Amino acid sequence: MTIGKMIKHKELLQRPALRKYLPETHWISPARTLRMIRSYSSIFIKPNKGSGGTGIIRAKRIRNVYEVGCGQRRKMVGPASLYRAIQSFQKPSQRYLVQRGLQLGRYKGSIFDVRIYMQKPKSRWVISGMAARVAAPNRFVTNYHKGGHGESLDKVLLHLFGNERRKVNDRLSKISDLSYSIATTINEHHSIRELGIDLGIEKSGRIWFIEANSKPGHMLFSQLPNKTMLNTIMKNKRLIRKLYS
């Protein structure tokens, strides 16, 4: 079952405690695109039902011009050509949404976000895995299929917060609480047993919801030297298959 990004966004918006974690998101239109890039300096245009980072377009303001890119392709355009440049990267068969760009934290020069692998083998959701996804150099998406790789979340957060253990522990606690709330909320609307939640952490430490995938991949966790989380994920997958297939 593929759940569209906009449906999940609207479901999470209904929960007042989650609203502060949701970046501004709308169906794309020329007026919204121009307003948002003026407000936030960068925006992301995403296919409603895309996965793996495929088809994500970024537009960012650089003084009086805009850089529009998808994958490793880039275009520099003026304001009058912005929407046309975005459309040149879109697929006619897809619906797109426009989302506020985030100033994600960096690890060794590359942006990163956080993947939380949630599973519900019985009656309660559990966090089976949690890792940082680090983008390939000069990429603006962190997905494994786009060259991203997994790192220990603890190590990456210590790097971001200058080895301040208290700040790291605080963010880990918030990430955990937020992940349970997101999984529970989406599960109220959809019958799911697994959920991959992607959260962004800005340089300031602010946490944002990016995406939730009801068919998460586990390759990220196979890249980590410690296989404990991968083993937990696979054990719960087998249990879910046994109990509910």
Return the CATH topology of the largest domain.
D-amino Acid Aminotransferase, Chain A, domain 1
Please give the number of β-strands: 12
Helicity, as a percent range: 25-40%
The unreliable regions are none
SS-derived structural category: alpha+beta
Largest sheet: 6 strands, antiparallel
Distance between the termini: 14 Å
* Mean pLDDT value: 93
CATH superfamily of the largest domain: ATP-grasp fold, B domain
Question: Roughly what fraction of the amino acids lie in strands?
Answer: 25-35%
Number of helices: 7
Radius of gyration: 18 Å
Order of strands in the sheet with the most strands? 1-6-2-3-4-5
Task: Kindly describe this structure.
It comes from Paenibacillus sp. SYP-B3998. Keywords: ATP-binding, Nucleotide-binding. Pfam families: ATPgrasp_YheCD. GO terms for molecular function: ATP binding; metal ion binding. The chain has about 240 residues and is an alpha+beta fold. It has two domains: about 25-100, Dna Ligase, domain 1, CATH 3.30.1490; about 105-245, ATP-grasp fold, B domain (D-amino Acid Aminotransferase, Chain A, domain 1), CATH 3.30.470. It has helices spanning about 5-15, 30-40, 80-90, 155-160, 165-190, 220, 230-245, and strands at about 25, 40-45, 55-60, 65-70, 75, 95-100, 105, 110-120, 125-135, 150, 195-200, 205-215. A six-stranded antiparallel beta sheet has the order 1-6-2-3-4-5, sandwiched between helices. Strands 7, 8, 9, 10, 11 and 12 form a six-stranded antiparallel beta sheet that branches. The longest helix is centred in the C-terminal third of the chain and has 25 residues, at about 165-190. It is globular.
